[in-house]
Write the structure tokens for this entry.
Amino acid sequence: MRITAWLAVVAVTLLAACTSEPEIRVRGERFNDEQLALGEQLYIQNCAACHGVNGEGQFPNAPLQPDATGRLGAPPHNATGHTWHHGDGLLIRYVLEGGVSLTDPANFYPMPAFGDQLSETDIMTIIAYIKTMWTDEQRTRQQQVTEAEASE
């Protein structure tokens, strides 16, 4: 009987480990489900109009191709995009200050600065939500980039 109970505990533990959501961190801070739900709301309110409700980018059929004007639209934030290539510090700065596209309006649509509208905590919460759109491998790689960025 003891072995059966022990096996049941092991099975439940393994099942919980396999079905648990991946840990989402921004600048070392862990985000729970409630915070991620808030991040989704903030993303929809502030980002989805350009980056897509599901992070598919401004031009989902050709997200990394120029449109008729020759400019690139807002990039995808989901697993098909390149957001995960950047560390947390750079992502936060883009949202606060407006991003690189402001320096090259001939090739990119402008990314407005949100520093007047969103707190840094709000921005971190949005970035945490965006990370839920990535694969485990992408989150791991992005964490490595963030750690390298912090050590510079």
